[in-house]
Amino acid sequence: MQERPTLGAKVNEALAAGGLEYKAGTLDVRHLIDVLVYDVGLDAIRKAVVHPLSGLKVVPYMGCMLPRPDYQHRWSDHEHPTELDDLLRALGADVIDYPLTTSCCGGHMTQIGPETAFELIRRLISDADERGAHLMATVCPMCQMNIDAYQNETNHFFHTNYHMPVLFFTQLMGLAFGKDPGELGIGLELVSARNALANIGIEVPVTQEPTAPRKKDEGLPMPRRWTKHEGRKEAGEMSGKRSPGSMSVTAGRTSQAQWMSLMSQTGLLKSLGGRA
Q1: Residues in the chain where the model's pLDDT stays below 70
Q2: What order of strands is seen across the sheet that includes strand 135-138?
Q3: Over 36-103, what HEC string results?
Q4: What are phi and psi of 217, to 5 degrees?
Q5: Domain boundaries, the chain
Q6: Is 135 helix (H, G, I), strand (E, B) or coil?
Q7: What's the CATH architecture for 41-198?
Q8: Strand partners, 3
Q9: pLDDT of residue 259
Q10: DSSP H or E run through 262
Q11: Is the full-model pTM beyond 0.90?
């Protein structure tokens, strides 16, 4: 908004509808690791350590988005930043040099181009494995999710058998500060960190296998195909003839009146200008 005043004016025009305003440059957005390293300080962090992570071989994975672009020159180097390395060393961990620290994890490519995403994930975990890492430490939720949730699919795709746990740097801080692993959410990861943490005498609690949340019954019905045995009237016939293979209006024989009611309740009808 500072660099593009016209865009800034449009943003503030939209914000004004809610009685809000933003003056460009007045908000300083910082990542937690930036605050910890440069405001709290590594000396203070070392003093808080009661269970050093000595013996835990960790690769520091910053991800591609945090250090780049570095307009305000926050990081030691936007291609090979050392802040995560320094923090992990302050916790007592054995930090392994990791040239891929700012390489991409694939982001949302798991949804739009899985083969590309699997290759990016494979590169990260295979390099960490070859360097003898017990686990990866990351600062990014997207990176953690991709490496953890899609590692099994990546193994299946490449016929490999990697087992590389990935934890947040804050979880490792908690362990070094003497927190209980269960309190830190350790044990809920899909690629278990149990064996990795056993190297430093930390026992990970046994947890239930994650299950998918139950879908809510309410909400708009989803389309489905007609069967040749279903009558048009039961599904709320629209104008004109409908072939047996065409799409019905709903997933559960919702009438046109019911559909209109649902659209009205969710605001969709208003967005269409009352048309149906």
Answers
A1: 207-276
A2: 94-95, 57-61, 135-138, 166-168
A3: HHHHHHHHHHHHHCCCCCCCCEEEEECCCCCCCCCCCCCCCCCCCCCHHHHHHHHCCCEECCCCCCCC
A4: -75, -30
A5: 41-198, 221-236+246-258
A6: strand
A7: 3-Layer(aba) Sandwich (3.40)
A8: none
A9: 46
A10: helix 256-266
A11: no
